[in-house]
Specification:
Layout: E1 20-22, E2 28-30, H1 110-154, H2 174-181, E3 185-192, E4 195-205, E5 209-212, H3 214-217, E6 225-230, E7 236-245, E8 250-255, E9 264-265, E10 276-281, E11 289-304, E12 312-319, E13 331-333, E14 338-346, E15 367-371, H4 372-385, E16 389-392, E17 406-407, H5 424-428, E18 435-439, E19 442-443, H6 447-455, E20 462-469, E21 472-479, E22 481-484
Parallel strand pairs: 9-14
Antiparallel strand pairs: 1-2, 3-4, 3-6, 4-5, 5-8, 6-7, 7-8, 10-11, 10-13, 11-12, 12-15, 13-14, 14-15, 16-22, 17-18, 18-19, 18-20, 20-21
C-alpha cells in the first residue's frame, strides 16, 4: 500500500485528501473546504445520482484500504470502479435467475449446456472404454502367461517329437561305406625306448593279417619296441611284424585273432581321374576318421623318405581327400567300398615334412596312395616269405644329372658299376652315359621317374626303353629282373 493510500484514522486527525465537487459546467472544481469527519456526516442516504465516493466510506481495514478480492481487478490508486460494476468482481446472479452460469456469472444458454453435456458424456465413455479394454488386456496377458508357464512345467508346449527315421544309408554312399569298412580299419601305435609313433592299417585276412606302411612300424623292426592295434570297438591287441619293404613303403603285421572282419580289394588299374573316393584312418591319433574326395591324378611319381636307403618310390594315386599324419597305412576306397590304395604320403609346403617325417604337417589337398595292385603283390610276398621282390633293369644312375631324362652313370656309384654285367640293361645293349627318356612311351624327366616307372611293374615283365646316345634316339626292349626288397 502506497503512502497516498494510507490514512491516519486516529482521533484528532483529519484526512489530507482534497474533496472534489462538481461545478456548474459539470466539471469537478477543487475545493479547499475540509469535509467533516466521517462521524460528523449525516446518516441519511445521498441524493439520487450522487457519486458513490461522496458517501461516508466504510470503516477502513486495519492496515489501510482493503485489497481487491482474489483475482478481481482493483481500482487504480483508489479510483472508483466503473458505474454499475461491482468493486469485487463479477456481479452476482440477478434475483430469480437459476444456474448454470458461465465463467462470468451469466446464465448459460441451453445450447451451450447441451453441447457441453454431450462432450462430457463422450469423454467419460472414452475413458471408461479405455479402462475396460486395459483391464481386459491385462487379464488376458496374465492368463496367457499363466498358461504358458503351466505348459512349460507340465511339458504340454514341448517341441514336436522327431520324425521316425533310420540310420540306414544308400549303398555306395560315404556313410554306408564308412559303416561297412570301419570295423576292418585299425589304429596302430608303436612304442620304443626313445618314443614312438602312430598310424593306421586295415585287415586283409580274417586270421589277423593287417597291412600298413613301412614307415609306421620301421622303428620297431629289430628293436626293443611294442606294436599295438586298436579296433573300432575299442579292443586292443599286441601285434608282431611279418615283413616290411621300404622301397614300396609297405609292411604287414599280425595280431592273434580269428574271424576278423576284412576289407574288399579293388583293381587300381580301373581307377580313372575324377572317381570319388573315401579315406579312413587315425589322423593325429583320432581313430575312425572318415574323409572323402576324388582321384586327382594317376601315375604320379612320388619319392618319400629321409634317405639312407629308406626312400620309397611310388607310382601313386593322387587324391584331394584329407590325409594327415596318422592316416598312413589306412585304406583309400572307391564308392563300391573296395580298397584301391594305401594312403602313404602328402605333399607339403617347403620346410614341412611329409607323413613319415619327424615333424607335423597338415593336408593341403595333395595326398598320395600306393595303388592296391602293387600293394597286393608286395603283401602276398611278405606274408609268404617275409620279404618282397621288386623289378630292376641293372643300372646305376647319375645323381648329378638334372635332366631331362635319366642318365646312366659314367662311373661306379657307391661301388656299383654303371651297367650290371649280364643284367637286363646290359642284355638290351644299354651303355654308361645313355639317357633314358621314356618307358613304354611314358616320358621320363628324372631319375626318380625312371625308378618309379620300373617299380610299378613286376619282375619278368618286358618294357620298351627309349634312350639317347650321341645325339641319336633309339629304343631297346628290356626284360625286368628281380631284386629282394
Amino acid at each position: 500500500m502506497s503512502d497516498d493510500e494510507r490514512r491516519d484514522t486516529s482521533p484528532g486527525h483529519r484526512a489530507e485528501d482534497p474533496v472534489e465537487s462538481p461545478g456548474a459546467d459539470g466539471r469537478a472544481a477543487a475545493s479547499t473546504e475540509q469535509p467533516a469527519a466521517w462521524w460528523e456526516r449525516p446518516t441519511e442516504p445521498p441524493p439520487s445520482g450522487a457519486a458513490l465516493w461522496g458517501a461516508a466510506p466504510a470503516p477502513p481495514a486495519p492496515y489501510g484500504v482493503p485489497p481487491a478480492p482474489y483475482g478481481a481487478p482493483a481500482s487504480p490508486y483508489g479510483a472508483p470502479p466503473a458505474p454499475g460494476a461491482s468493486p469485487y468482481g463479477a456481479p452476482p446472479p440477478s434475483p430469480g435467475s437459476t444456474g448454470p452460469y458461465d465463467t462470468l456469472g451469466r446464465p448459460e444458454s441451453p445450447a451451450g449446456r447441451s453441447l457441453g453435456s454431450r462432450t462430457g458424456l463422450l469423454a467419460t465413455l472414452a475413458v471408461l472404454i479405455a479402462l475396460v479394454a486395459g483391464a481386459m488386456g491385462g487379464a488376458l496377458g496374465l492368463y496367457v502367461s499363466h498358461e504358458r508357464d503351466r505348459g512349460v512345467l507340465d511339458g504340454s508346449t514341448a517341441l514336436p517329437a522327431p520324425s521316425v527315421g533310420s540310420t540306414a544309408r544308400p549303398s555306395g554312399s560315404v556313410a554306408e561305406i564308412a559303416g561297412r569298412t570301419l570295423p576292418s580299419v585299425v589304429a596302430i601305435s608303436v612304442r620304443t625306448s626313445s618314443g614312438g609313433g602312430t598310424g593306421s592299417g586295415f585287415v586283409i585276412r580274417a586270421d589277423g593279417y593287417v597291412v600298413t606302411n613301412n614307415h609306421v612300424v620301421a622303428e620297431a623292426v629289430g628293436g626293443n619296441a611294442t606294436v599295438e592295434v586298436q579296433f573300432s570297438d575299442q579292443r586292443t591287441a599286441k601285434a608282431t611284424i611279418v615283413g616290411t619293404d621300404a622301397s614300396y613303403d609297405l609292411a604287414v603285421i599280425k595280431v592273434a585273432a580269428r574271424d576278423l572282419p576284412t576289407v574288399s580289394l579293388g583293381n587300381s588299374d580301373d581307377v580313372v581321374v575324377g572317381d570319388q573316393v573315401v579315406a579312413i584312418g587315425a589322423p593325429l591319433g583320432l581313430a575312425g576318421t572318415v574323409t572323402s574326395g576324388i582321384i586327382s591324378a594317376k601315375n604320379r611319381p612320388v619319392t618319400a623318405g629321409q634317405g639312407g636307403g629308406d626312400e620309397s618310390f611310388i607310382n601313386a594315386l593322387q587324391t584331394d581327400a584329407a590325409i594327415n599324419p596318422g592316416n598312413s597305412g589306412g585304406p583309400l576306397m572307391d564308392l563300391s567300398g573296395r580298397v584301391i590304395g594305401v594312403n602313404s604320403a602328402i605333399a607339403t609346403l617347403p620346410g614341412s615334412p611329409a607323413l613319415g617325417g619327424s615333424g607335423q604337417s597338415g593336408s593341403i589337398g595333395l595326398g598320395f596312395a600306393i595303388p592296391i595292385n602293387q600293394a597286393r603283390r608286395t603283401t602276398e610276398q611278405l606274408i609268404r616269405t617275409g620279404k618282397s621282390a621288386h623289378p630292376v633293369i641293372g643300372v646305376a644312375l647319375d645323381t648329378t644329372y638334372d635332366g631331362p631324362g635319366a642318365r646312366i652313370a659314367l662311373a661306379p656309384v657307391g661301388g656299383t658299376l654303371p651297367v650290371t654285367p649280364g643284367g637286363p640293361a646290359a642284355k638290351a645293349g644299354l651303355r654308361a652315359g645313355d639317357v633314358v627318356t621314356a618307358v613304354d612311351g611314358q616320358k621320363v624327366n628324372s631319375n626318380d621317374e625312371l625308378i618309379v616307372a620300373i617299380r610299378a611293374r613286376v619282375p619278368g615283365a618286358s618294357v620298351s626303353l627309349t634312350y639317347e646316345r650321341g645325339g641319336r634316339t633309339a629304343t631297346a626292349r628290356v626284360t625286368l629282373g628281380s631284386s629282394a626288397g
